[in-house]
Design a protein that fits this description.
The complex is a heterodimer of chains A (114) and B (107). By secondary structure, chain A is mainly β. Chain A is 0% helix and 48% strand. With 107 residues, chain B is an all-beta fold. Classes of the chains: A mainly beta (114), B mainly beta (107). At the A-B interface, strand 5, strand 9 and strand 10 of A face strand 4, strand 5, strand 9 and strand 10 of B.
Chain lengths: 114, 107
């Protein structure tokens, strides 16, 4: 079974630039999560999708972050414009609906904002 | 105060030593996870438990629901065990993560 795929693995941008991350969950996993993990901290949920609908985006900084999952499969997370404090690893995870206690994580995208 | 607290933050051990990482949580949970994160970001689930004890190879996880405490033990530690170990508490569609314990095992 293929795991959660993310790209790119690494990205370096300057502040005020835009960046987008892509995630393809495990086939059949209708629930998709984006997490932000700042160095030295645990992951923090940014947004959770169920199919193409948003379940929870309460911690997403909506003035600069956006995410979509138009066809209910893969998803993109965008930051526009980026700030220095956005430097982090962005993790995507997926799970079977109703089984959110078992989440499968992708390798993450490490973002550095200069 | 974080809802999920781990200790220690950093741990250095010699190969072969017995390792214990602790996790305390203040929220109600239906499941508690121990996750392993290697450099580069990828996270692997080691255990999910809601009571008692689980063992997988050299890894043992225990949980005490009454005391809201869990421990991860590594027996006969090896340099390849070097990673960040994260405790995560799950309840009602919500996962709360600890800050992680960085383990370095020296040969």
């Amino acid at each position: 079974e293929a795991g959660v795929a993310q790209s790119p693995r690494y990205k370096i941008i300057e502040k005020r630039q835009s960046v987008a991350f892509w995630c393809n969950p495990i086939s059949g996993h209708a629930t998709l999560y984006w997490y932000q993990q700042i160095l030295g901290q645990g992951p923090k949920l940014l947004i959770q999708f169920q199919n193409n609908g948003v379940v929870d985006d309460s911690q997403l900084p909506k003035d600069r972050f956006s995410a979509e999952r138009l066809k209910g499969v893969d998803s993109t997370l965008k930051i526009q414009p980026a700030k220095l404090e956005d430097s982090a690893v962005y993790l995507c995870a997926s799970s079977v609906p109703g089984q959110g206690w078992t989440q499968y994580f992708g390798p993450g995208t490490r973002l550095t904002v200069l | 105060k974080n809802e999920v607290e781990q200790s220690p933050q950093n741990l250095t051990a010699q190969e072969g030593e017995f390792i214990t990482i602790n996790c305390s949580y203040s929220v109600g949970i239906s499941a508690l996870h121990w996750l392993q994160q290697h450099p580069g970001g990828g996270i692997v689930s080691l255990f999910m438990l809601s009571s008692g004890k689980k063992k997988h190879g050299r890894l043992i996880a225990t949980i005490n629901i009454q005391e809201k405490h869990s421990s991860l033990h590594i027996t006969a530690s090896h340099p390849r065990d070097s990673a960040v170990y994260i405790c995560a508490a799950y309840n009602n569609n919500d996962m709360r993560f600890g800050a992680g314990t960085r383990l370095t095992v020296k040969p």
